[in-house]
Amino acid sequence: METLQENPLMGHQKVFHSLIYGLLIQLHRICEQGHEFYLQASYYSNRKFSLGGGTLSFFRHVNGRVVVALACGQVAIFRRNPEGEWDLSQYHLVQLGLPHQSVRQLAVVGDKVWCGYRNKIHVLQPHDLQVVHTLEAHPRRESPVRQMAWLGEGVWVSIRLDSTLRLYHAHTYQHLQDVDIEPYVSKMLGTGKLGFSLVRITSLLISSNRLWIGTSNGVIISVPLSDNGSSMGAVVPRGSIMLPGAGVRIPPVPGSFVPYCTMAHAQLSFHGHRDNVKFFVAVPGNGGTSAASTPSEAMSASVSSIGGQLKQPSAMLVISGGEGYVDFRIEDDNEPRDGASHLLVWQLLTDIPGNPLG
């Protein structure tokens, strides 16, 4: 008889939650102004902490370091002591900008962390505790970096209140491509429908070799990623009139993968939200199962017959979160507005030859 073993990741998760619990208590010393933050986890009961003006924005773990973005223009870096335990009394602060401006985004890129501060991206090396490079993602300081997503040799970046995505090389920091999604959305759904002339990017995710884009109008777009030059179509040089989905393209170094994309291959979901797409999450799924599957069928699909070891996931579930649900194919202005939070789930099969979503 097969037995299910406890997922070893749960132990690491408990340790990490313990780290964050102590970390939140420690951060209140960094800045002066009062602020409150709620931690919700299965191990704590909605405990409330006073963090000061250095409100916790984002945190990322990379190679034994925890990097925390703060609202006072700093990042805090925590590490383990010689005994292997997290040392919350000794941390290093890196000043990225003025105290009244937040560090709004963090993205792990290899062994470095890209930090979004206003319109700039500071590339931080957590082990050396220093910024190794700074790039300007937008010419206006009032246009801050909003989202970042990394794959291979490229990092996709979105800007607040902007419909254009920017691709940067993960190591040389070159600006490789610009992709404007507004013409595509307007073409698919019409410029007058729910104000689609004001498309703004609010969420970004890379999963299953696809770039998932969420907008301020609740629209969700999935674009395949490829560094194959033959599949990219025409690219307009900088300084020329930009065509929809076109941009600046620099040939990649042989043997590397630069995640270029083109809106000519994009897919728009007619299922969306009534307001901003708040977030995306990708989790392993069970190939061949559906909402109609029983819990025992779903569990047996994820456990092999040898030692109860988990199989390599044959599917990924991509989940979007936002307020309300809308089917963009149906026009009903008299329908009451549903403001409840909704989750939309897509299943991407990865083990079927020729599957366009794999």
Terminal Cα separation, in Å?
33 Å
Work out the number of β strands: 23
| Fraction of residues in helix | 10-25%
The topology string of helices and strands comes to HEEEEEEEEEEEEEEHEEEEEEHEEE
User: What value does the average pLDDT take?
Assistant: 74
Question: Helix/strand/pairing class, anyone?
Answer: mainly beta
Strand content: 35-45%
The biggest beta sheet reads:
4 strands, antiparallel
Radius of gyration over alpha carbons? 22 Å
Strand arrangement, major sheet: 3-4-5-6
Number of DSSP helical runs: 3
Shape: globular
Sequence stretches where pLDDT stays below 50 over 5 or more residues: 1-13, 28-53, 229-248, 289-310, 351-358
Description of the structure:
The longest helix has 20 residues, at 8-27. With 358 residues, the chain is mainly beta. The chain is built from 3 helices and 23 strands. It has helices at residues 8-27, 182-189, 295-302; strands at 36-41, 44-50, 56-62, 65-70, 74-80, 86-95, 103-109, 112-117, 120-125, 130-136, 145-151, 154-159, 164-169, 175-180, 201-207, 210-215, 220-224, 267-269, 271-272, 277-285, 315-323, 326-327, 341-349. The model is unreliable at 1-13, 28-53, 229-248, 289-310 and 351-358 (pLDDT under 50). The chain is globular. The strands form 7 sheets. Strands 3-4-5-6 form a 4-stranded antiparallel beta sheet, with helices on one face. A 4-stranded antiparallel beta sheet has the order 7-8-9-10, with no helix packed on it. Helices cover 10% and strands 41% of the residues.
